[in-house]
Design goal:
Layout: H1 3-14, E1 18-22, H2 42-51, E2 54-58, E3 80-82, H3 92-95, E4 100-103, H4 108-113, E5 119-121, H5 126-132, H6 140-143, H7 153-164, H8 171-181, H9 189-201
Parallel strand pairs: 1-2, 1-4, 2-3, 4-5
Length: 204
């Protein structure tokens, strides 16, 4: 289904204005099991979301899209929604309708920087990820500077609450990261790619 009607339907059903998206990266191309949200306090999180007119969408990497959530979620009652593959096949179109991004080591971090909206970082298993999954191009601390780095879900929801209450403390850091990782911040990249391709084949 189209993303706008799907997200808007959820927002209207529960009476929400803001969308928080949790989008972690994969582990082992889907071959490795992991536990990222079993420690999420569903009841308390739902209270925070209700008080701030928000919903939390959980979008797993497509390698893990068919896995069941680590916690019991009732999508008819909760403001915490586990997105299935058939709900939202691709994540990038969803970003424009997201007010706060929660992520770990995913490349979605760099895409979302283009929108200059709050980002909350969740390197819950950083040591295990580096040891058992893959290395990074740079030290994580040098990359993940655009938002607070949280150790657990209680810290994550506390940071979400700050932002939802209008306390965005990482504006300058976000701008600096955006400038560091994105040479162009506009909607003209396709045109630039076409021009490069035309020049490569000698088309004027």
């Amino acid at each position: 289904p189209p993303i706008i009607p799907y997200v808007e339907k959820i927002k209207q059903t529960v009476g929400a204005k803001s969308v928080i998206l949790y989008a972690p990266t994969h582990r082992g191309e889907g071959r490795r099991t992991f536990d990222l949200i079993s420690t999420l306090d569903i009841v308390n999180t739902d209270k925070i979301l209700t008080a701030n007119n928000a919903i939390l969408l959980i979008k797993m990497h497509h390698y893990h899209q068919d896995h069941n959530p680590d916690v019991s979620l009732d999508n008819t009652l909760s403001r915490i929604i586990w997105l299935r593959k058939e709900d939202i096949p691709e994540i990038n179109p969803l970003l424009n309708y997201t007010d706060i991004l929660i992520t770990d080591y995913s490349g979605v971090y760099f895409d979302y920087l283009m929108l200059d909206r709050p980002i909350i970082l969740t390197p819950f298993d950083l040591e295990q990820y580096l040891a058992g999954d893959r290395e990074m191009y740079d030290d994580y601390g040098n990359i993940a500077t655009a938002g607070p780095m949280c150790k657990n879900w209680n810290e994550v929801m506390a940071e979400c609450q700050k932002v939802l209450e209008g306390n965005d403390q990482y504006r300058e850091e976000r701008k600096a990261a955006q400038k560091k990782f994105n040479t162009f911040v506009d909607a003209k990249s396709c045109s630039r790619v076409i021009e490069v391709a035309k020049n490569m084949v000698g088309i004027q």
